[in-house]
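FORM 7B - TANDEM STRUCTURE REPORT

SECTION 1: FIRST PROTEIN
SEQUENCE AND TOKENS:
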Amino acid sequence: MCGIVGVVSSTPVNQLIYDSLLLLQHRGQDAAGIATANGSTFHMHKANGLVRDVFRTRNMRGLPGSAGIGQVRYPTAGSASSEEEAQPFYVNAPYGIILSHNGNLTNWQQLREEMFRRDRRHINTHSDTEVLLNVLADELQRASNGMSLDPEIIFTAVAGMHRRVRGSYAIAAQIAGYGMLAVRDPFGIRPLCLGSVDTPHGKEWMVASESVALEGIGYRLERDVAPGEAIFIDLDGKLHTKQCADNPQLNSCIFEYVYLARPDSCIDGVPVYEARMRMGDYLAEKIAQEVRSGDIDVVMPIPDSSRPAAMQVANKLGLGYREGFFKNRYVGRTFIMPGQAVRKKSVRQKLNAMGVEFKGKNVLIVDDSIVRGTTSFEIVQMARDAGANKVIFASAAPPVKFPNVYGIDMPTRSELVAHGRTHDEIARMIGADQLVYQDVEAMKQAVRDINPALKDFDASCFDGKYITGDIDEAYLERLETARSQADRDGTGGDTERSQLHLQRSGGNE
């Protein structure tokens, strides 16, 4: 998972992009990068680290220009980060292009080979983003036949890219001397939205992974970029759009609503906070069916993303709501930590149970999801250590049973606590007296209740249905074999895993 942004303005954009990336920091804390266009010249700075650490005053001064793009990146689990694979990426032919990408190409390895043998393009990293950039550059060269570009030629190139590329991708790119290009894949898996602001110089434009990045710096959310759509904004600030996919269909990633996106964002017409509250409503119905009346004294969330669901559960069940866990906000997310020992330690650093809220009580703990189960075990143990009489655990998401191949670095099936186990078995593993999961259909319906136009979703990590149609058992087995080998070798997958699909720069959780 990553966060991308692109801005076309009449004034310098370096500060605008920096501020937007701060608002998208939750989508990536491994590396950050900004590239600006000053006329036909690109200026770029990128490095490992948080936005505030990567960019200093001297770096910002070196980013002149009234258009540009930026990205924040999340690492692949256990991988050694490489600054060379931080984004944006640049290619100098045929026109000079810089590109940032959120998502994951499932056929990037085949494309990389094709780039080398047929197109004579050298890919210097193991990043699917560099492959994607070169596919776009190759299609622009074919569509233009070496001539000057116009919007129709650019859209023809995007259509060619759609036909060749598989997987998920939201793109922000700058073409030297022409303008900014934004594209969303034909399934609309990863989010991308368009915003604008009226200025004395005319309307200025911005694209970003989440609406919070627009609204937080004063832009107005216009709409979401449609699946398969390309948006091109020329040097005069004129916006051109075209549907470039043969058969587009919207399948938003359901995990954005469950966990990934900020609650104050709106994705594909659905306020994330409202979706999480509706998930709490459906979870409350499930709890009422499975847990005996009187077995719960109080409802507590695991801060922060499960808070809306937990509040609705308490409200629907007529129970007290308490904040029993205090969160240290200066520790990263835990399910992507490199190794169980580090993950176990980080949970205790990240959360502290307040004994006054637990002692002698039957506690219902609500979390957004359960992945490996390591974090859940530690949380249950903390509740017991704090004096809880009984601990019931509820997940606002269904059991995570399958890997995600579209940009979220989920573990392999053998590492997922829900894969091949019953709910009772999982409850015993995490130490809970009882475990309640959300139903898959209820989770989807919670989002549909807000926007009925959303017919289906990418929910592959819950239901095993890979909507791009190119993922089979052999693909998943190759992934798991490579990951196991990387763990045995102690490489953490820096090369082997990225050679399958878990690119550090392509957007991963």
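SECTION 2: SECOND PROTEIN
SEQUENCE AND TOKENS:
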Amino acid sequence: MREHTDQVWHCYLPGAWPGFLYGYRVHGPYQPELGHRFNPNKIVLDPYARAIGRRLEWQDELFAYRIGDPRGDLSYDERDNAAYVPLAAVVDPHFDWGNDRPPRVAWHRTLIYELHVKGFTKLHPRVPPNLRGTYEGLSSDAVIHYLKDLGVTTLELMPVHHFVDDRHLLAKGLSNYWGYNTLSFFAPDLRYAASRTEQGAIDEFKRMVRSFHLVGIEVILDVVYNHTAEGNHFGPTLSFRGVDNAAYYRLVRNNRRYYEDFTGCGNTLNLQHPRVLQLIMDSLRYWVLEMHVDGFRFDLASALARELYEVNKLSAFFDVICQDPVLSQVKLIAEPWDLGHGGYQVGNFPVGWTEWNGLYRDAVRRFWKNDGGTLGEFATRLSGSSDLYESSGRRPSASINFVTCHDGFTLNDQVSYNHKHNEANGDNNIDGTNDNLSWNCGVEGPTADPAIKALREKQKRNLLATLILSQGVPMLLAGDETGRTQLGNNNAYCHACNRFNQSFRRQ
């Protein structure tokens, strides 16, 4: 590429028709101590790739430095990674949307249902076997009828952006099942496509959205713009790091070899750079305008609001979204915390945003566990959390109420276990939070004791009734209504759905 405009290199490539696979080699200095990690021996993925035509195969050649070298990431690897790196695919954007219209369900009528595309459909007995685990399976007649009967207005899909299975998980026979390890912010993951093709993933996703819109159900995406799959300074060079490491990532100011990490995943995207902010905005608009989704839930949203170090309610990210004629009109949900200092920001997001209300979750759990001194806060949470939202003029609908979510115990396990049981994750049960102590279950896990079973069922009804009757927007975790269990694992991010998912075995 010989031309560049406004910090973007560009060219015209004749013959790059749909199906054409490509990657970039980016030349520049390899000076990690200054934040530069260019290595033209490594093909890197286009950050704007619309589809991934070849998945990553883990090999040492994917790293810009020489693994095993005593100099660590300061060393330089000259081997070519072309045989193993993910490649972008040119796609045909045409799709017949017909008369598709966004349902635009009002917040006060919204019931959110959080689900995993594969997990919800893989064991569903009424989904055609060849469509289970896919976008097509999720929009099958059986699923649509079930969701309508349940009263769901809005689906919140756990990440569908193309993501990477961590190398250390694969070595243990596990995978990044949840998908919070994004590599491409534009490409729907083809693992959820029945056709297993790059064009098929796009078309099938669009058909899924169109099918839900026909019956008045919205589709919102759980998106992970706070970090990428490239990890810390010892991570692979797959895309952003090799394109322009110093621009895309937040680096430690006095030692640019290292990354600021507000996410617990090794890196944090640098929204202070105008082209990185543009990338995220372009991605969001693409999913609304081209893929017709109805909104977003932002993972670790506090990390997006850190202008320098502190979380800033008036950050450029919020300002740009608020003024955007497209994005300001869709549903915007923040997970209002990250892992950095001062990152817990429930109640502090701007007008126009709703928030996962972690204080609601904690108060409702404490009340039904019969903890002392909880009635006052329980009443406040039940009636819309005015202490959090009224001063800014936001209504109770700014509170996304939940008692369980993907991250933690299922509802069944919440009342069935006193302790987490994450041994299968391979981390000696030190991962996950101790958020379920003192439910006084008597015995943990499945039991034949009718008295204990009856008590657990009553507690589940108590929690769900509170959720549905509270002021605010209820969010239900998929499978909680049917007793789904993860056998006490409250951090099942690395397990395939067939290990734990028992959502539909009763039906």
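SECTION 3: OBSERVATIONS ON SECOND PROTEIN
The longest helix spans residues 450-469.
Residues 502-507 have pLDDT under 50 and may be disordered.

SECTION 4: SIGNATURE
Preparer initials: ____
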